[in-house]
Amino acid sequence: MPDQQKATETSLDTVIVFTSRMKALAAFYSQGLGIGPYQESPKHLGCRIGSVYFGFDQVDAESDKGPKGFGPTIWFTVEDIEDSFRRLVELGATVRYPPTKKPWGAKLASLEDLDGNIFGISQRLESTDE
After folding, report:
1. 12 versus 71: which is more confidently predicted?
2. What average pLDDT does the chain have?
């Protein structure tokens, strides 16, 4: 395992499962593990499990699938998204979309790791951040 360059405040924040059977899969976890209730929006169901957000995104088209088909996407919260994004790209990550400010007050970027697994990084923004 490579040495860490510096200690960071990175935390596991979100796990999203991409599925063509969103409601059935959400019901499976709800009934099997007591997860929920879920918040619902078009093509998304999700809830908090402790400090981690766990959700499901409905995907229908082949183009919506990740490189290995449906599966989970893990999201990490980082202190400095631009710096983390730059380092990950330098290490060989493939960019799905660069750091982008979202209306709910976060900056997100999505990448693929060296094996093509999709993951994301996020930074919560203060009201004065851009």
Report:
1. 12
2. 83
Please choose, from the candidates 7, 23, 89, the residue with its C-alpha nearest in 3D space to the C-alpha of residue 58.
23
Q: CATH top-level class for 78-130?
A: alpha beta
Radius of gyration of the chain (CA): 16
What pLDDT band is residue 90 in, cutting at 50, 70 and 90? Answer: very high
Q: What global pTM score does this model have?
A: 0.66
| Three-state DSSP state, 14 | strand
Residue type for position 55: G
- Name residues whose C-beta falls within 8 Å of residue 123's C-beta, 6 or more positions apart in sequence: 77, 78, 79, 80, 81, 99, 106, 107
Its CATH class, for the domain covering 15-65, is alpha beta
What element of type H or E holds 127?
none
Sign of the alpha-carbon dihedral angle for 85, 89, 92, 96: positive
Domain spans in the chain, listed from the N-terminal domain onward: 15-65, 78-130
DSSP-assigned beta bridge partners for residue 12: 76
3-state helix, strand and coil shares in percent for the chain, rounded to the nearest 5: 20, 45, 40
